[in-house]
Amino acid sequence: MLEKANRLGNSRETVLTDMIVDMDTVFAESTRGTLLQEKLREREAEIHITDRQGLYALSWRRRWESEWNDELDAFLPYPDGQKRVKEEHFLLVFLETKDLCDLVEQGENGLDAWAEKLKESAPRKRIMLMTEGLEIYYRKRRTAKRRDFEQQVLHRLDWSAVDGSGGSNRRRRTQADVDTGLGPTKDDIESALTYLQFMQDVMLVPTNDQAETIDWMVAMTAEIARAPYRMVQRRSRQGPARSGLDASDTWNKMLQEIQLCTPAVAKSVATEYPKLQDLHKAYQAKDTQKDREDMLAHLSVERSAISARDRTVNDAMSKKICTVFTSDDPDEVIT
């Protein structure tokens, strides 16, 4: 039972089997909702339809049969063998472009009211906002603006011709000559989305079309399902720093923490400079930075078991070690 509880859930085939996707009724009855339900059921996720009056489309829950124990660094099965259902800390709002435009036109007060309503409905959840078709909207808006400009130019030319001929060719203004009544500009929308990101901590997920929207929703569900297991994997990879048996061994291991500094290279440097202070004094004795960078390049390195040729620390490693121990620039990138 303990082994099963600690088997990390990274399999693409089974990762969604413990997930419950709570789907709003309005979204579930849409074409996208129907397609998403098919995709999720194929991967054995449970779907629960709930009425949120269209406030947000998706939220997630998970069935747990164990809980994480920090002291033992492992998942422990529940003593009664029963599963627990717990809320995940995310909700997803889906807005088509026309709905997003309506929201943007309400200004910052409207954006704040919208976000606060979501937070009141689902406290302590992270809001993700998925918008579909923004790039298509921007493209159509540019086309409409260009067409409107061309119509205005042609209209002015027509009126000039009428004025020059005594008015006999005057035509009635058509609907195409009237202002097109376009929605908010790209700058308006991006300013509003930036405001939501920074002021209301909303995560943005833009998509281009219906197919991409469904793919993203499935992928997000899978990522939420895998999140706790990935956290455990990261913790297990980090581990504590290695400690040495004595000062000399600690100095040797300290050198090996430098990328690509092998035990043989570390041993060569530690043999020539038995303490960090010795290396530091040697660097200080050099007149130029170039001399310091090249100082270790010609140190002999113990031959490897598969190579009979003599080796040295080499220029690149010498420069890297020098940079690690002498640079005072906190933003310097060491490669």
TrEMBL record:
<dbReference type="GO" id="GO:0031573">
    <property type="term" value="P:mitotic intra-S DNA damage checkpoint signaling"/>
</dbReference>
<dbReference type="InterPro" id="IPR006166">
    <property type="entry name" value="ERCC4_domain"/>
</dbReference>
<dbReference type="Pfam" id="PF21292">
    <property type="entry name" value="EME1-MUS81_C"/>
</dbReference>
<keyword id="KW-0539">Nucleus</keyword>
<dbReference type="GO" id="GO:0006302">
    <property type="term" value="P:double-strand break repair"/>
</dbReference>
<comment type="similarity">
    <text>Belongs to the EME1/MMS4 family.</text>
</comment>
<dbReference type="GO" id="GO:0031297">
    <property type="term" value="P:replication fork processing"/>
</dbReference>
<dbReference type="Pfam" id="PF02732">
    <property type="entry name" value="ERCC4"/>
</dbReference>
<dbReference type="InterPro" id="IPR047521">
    <property type="entry name" value="XPF_nuclease_EME1_ascomycetes"/>
</dbReference>
<keyword id="KW-0255">Endonuclease</keyword>
<keyword id="KW-0233">DNA recombination</keyword>
<keyword id="KW-0540">Nuclease</keyword>
<dbReference type="GO" id="GO:0048476">
    <property type="term" value="C:Holliday junction resolvase complex"/>
</dbReference>
<dbReference type="GO" id="GO:0008821">
    <property type="term" value="F:crossover junction DNA endonuclease activity"/>
</dbReference>
<keyword id="KW-0479">Metal-binding</keyword>
<dbReference type="GO" id="GO:0000712">
    <property type="term" value="P:resolution of meiotic recombination intermediates"/>
</dbReference>
<feature type="domain" description="ERCC4">
    <location>
        <begin position="59"/>
        <end position="220"/>
    </location>
</feature>
<dbReference type="GO" id="GO:0005634">
    <property type="term" value="C:nucleus"/>
</dbReference>
<dbReference type="GO" id="GO:0046872">
    <property type="term" value="F:metal ion binding"/>
</dbReference>
<feature type="region of interest" description="Disordered">
    <location>
        <begin position="164"/>
        <end position="184"/>
    </location>
</feature>
<keyword id="KW-0378">Hydrolase</keyword>
<keyword id="KW-0469">Meiosis</keyword>
<dbReference type="InterPro" id="IPR033310">
    <property type="entry name" value="Mms4/EME1/EME2"/>
</dbReference>
<dbReference type="GO" id="GO:0003677">
    <property type="term" value="F:DNA binding"/>
</dbReference>
<protein>
    <recommendedName>
        <fullName>ERCC4 domain-containing protein</fullName>
    </recommendedName>
</protein>
<keyword id="KW-0234">DNA repair</keyword>
<dbReference type="InterPro" id="IPR042530">
    <property type="entry name" value="EME1/EME2_C"/>
</dbReference>
<keyword id="KW-0460">Magnesium</keyword>
<keyword id="KW-0227">DNA damage</keyword>
